[in-house]
Amino acid sequence: MIKKIGFTLVLFMALLQGFYALFAFLDPMSFATVRGTTLYSTDDLDWVQIYASRTLFISLTIGVLLYLRNYKTLLFAAIIGTVMPITDGWLAYQAGADTSVVAKHVATIVYLLITSLVLLNIVKKESVEQV
Q1: Are the C-beta atoms of 59 and 23 separated by less than 8 Å?
Q2: Which residues of 25-52 are buried (b: 16+ CB within 10 A; e: fewer)?
Q3: Using CA atoms, how far apart are residues 20 and 35, in angstroms rounded to an integer?
Q4: In this structure, is the dihedral angle defined by the CA atoms of residues 51, 35, 39 and 94, taken in order, positive or negative?
Q5: DSSP state of 70
Q6: What angle do CA 11, 13, 19 make, to 5 degrees?
């Protein structure tokens, strides 16, 4: 049961990152606003698209690791992945973004930490089963 929960949490994470990547590619101005930063010039659109390409890379990497059921690596990815919403939340806060935008970043941190705990339980369970 715990593996199904972990699988679902990680799948949602990968799909959400994939959605964000597509959204950023297709409508960079709106995406920037939703994420808490405003683009004042269309000259800055390339930075959102660079973000999109990296987000797509993350989504695909997480997807492959999930397909391979590499829960140990996914555990580390979830923990290390908190760097992004911490940084994004801080940048949104500094840019004067709406409180709801900053709250989304905080919610993402909490989600990643919960996912990490579930993945840790899976990894521990797998190591006991191997003995």
Answers
A1: no
A2: beebeebbeebbbebeeeeeeeebeebb
A3: 10
A4: negative
A5: -
A6: 100
Q: Using alpha carbons, select from 107, 78, 72 the residue that is nearest to residue 92.
A: 107
Helical segments of 1-131, H only: 2-26, 28-35, 45-67, 71-80, 83-94, 99-130
Decide if pLDDT at 131 tops 70: no
pTM above 0.70, yes or no: yes
Q: How confident is the model over 89-106, as a mean pLDDT?
A: 90
Return the pLDDT at 108. 95
Q: Are 94 and 105 in contact (CB under 8 A)?
A: no
CA dist., res. 118 & res. 90, Å (int): 26
Let me know if 94 is exposed, middle or buried by CB neighbors in 10 A (0-12, 13-18, 19+). Answer: exposed
CA pseudo-torsion sign 10, 116, 103, 36? negative
Quote the CA–CA distance of 102 and 48 in Å, as a whole number. Answer: 18
